[in-house]
Design brief:
- Helix content is 0%, strand content 37%.
- By secondary structure, it is mainly beta.
- The strands form 2 sheets. Strands 1-8-3-6 form a 4-stranded antiparallel sheet, with no helix packed on it. Strands 2-7-4-5 form a 4-stranded antiparallel sheet, with no helix packed on it.
- The two termini are 28 Å apart.
């Protein structure tokens, strides 16, 4: 097998933490960044977070399941949200948590078919 050819420099550092805020996104992919202040939270219910890859850019969060059980994630952690209902993302550290997510655009106007459709 041969190595794939690249037209230019990579937009991702090969060392250190991945920062989704700096990636060049292809057509049909959208990004959003939210900041949770100390004690703040987001509900991950519904389609708003569905199919999103989320990076914890700064701070510490708990992903709280419907049972009340928390899963702690710190800076550098990645979370893929699919099919989660009644889940809460809470900022639990002494500093704000910054979360950046990337996902396919909700509409088909970008020409990218949704998964499972060709």
């Amino acid at each position: 097998m041969s190595e794939p050819e690249h037209d230019g420099p990579a937009d991702v550092r090969l060392e250190g933490p991945l920062d989704l805020r700096t990636l060049r996104l292809p057509p049909g992919v959208v990004r959003r960044t939210v900041t949770l202040e100390e004690g703040g939270f987001l509900c991950a219910a519904g389609a708003a977070w569905c199919g999103e890859l989320i990076a914890v850019i700064a701070g510490t969060i708990d992903v709280v399941l419907p049972t009340g059980e928390p899963q702690r994630l710190v800076r550098g952690a990645l979370l893929f949200v699919e099919g989660l209902t009644d889940v809460e993302l809470r900022c639990v550290g002494p500093t704000p948590a910054i979360l950046t997510g990337v996902r396919r655009a909700a509409d088909d106007s970008a020409g990218v078919p949704p998964p499972g459709r060709a």
